[in-house]
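Researcher: Let's try something more involved. This one mixes different molecule types, so please make sure each is placed in the same coordinate frame as the others.
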Amino acid sequence: DQQVKQNSPSLSVQEGRISILNCDYTNSMFDYFLWYKKYPAEGPTFLISISSIKDKNEDGRFTVFLNKSAKHLSLHIVPSQPGDSAVYFCAAGGGNFGNEKLTFGTGTRLTIIP
Amino acid sequence: DARVTQTPRHKVTEMGQEVTMRCQPILGHNTVFWYRQTMMQGLELLAYFRNRAPLDDSGMPKDRFSAEMPDATLATLKIQPSEPRDSAVYFCASGPDMRMFSTDTQYFGPGTRLTVL
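Model: All components are placed in one shared frame. Result:
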């Protein structure tokens, strides 16, 4: 039972354009959401997070949007750069374990075309 | 620059052999996690420790997998006997106590790529 879903395994975007990565979740106990970025042969690294009390969080070129009613979040990267090519994982936490235990999606491989 | 370290980085073994993967969490972190990355399931949580005590290992096949923390600086994941379907990348992560809804995060090691022939 996949509680966090990333339905697009891959995405290609032209350099300089906007990249939009999507994530859906089913567990209404989730109240903290994160995006991790992973390069080949490395572990995932934290990118940006959002608490359920907000609907938007911005950090430089990265913005995460949360739509609680739709149980949907998205990551926007503007403008996209070649170094953004990586696998992006959406993750969610909350409930009995607080933000400690995270449930991850299957990842979306983003390729930025120069 | 504090980092989670994992050894070995790569392991090739034959079916039926025992495999031990090691992790050194970031000093001061009291939660440790083991994940397995597969194409179909993404990052699956195998085991989760807080203050060296196992809290959740529901994602781990109990008959062949075991996870322990002999001390605060070492976490181990063992597979005995190993099978070809165990081939994957195994990640260790550590983090601070986030039960009070801290907005900190988990920090991942570089992973161990396991191939079981």
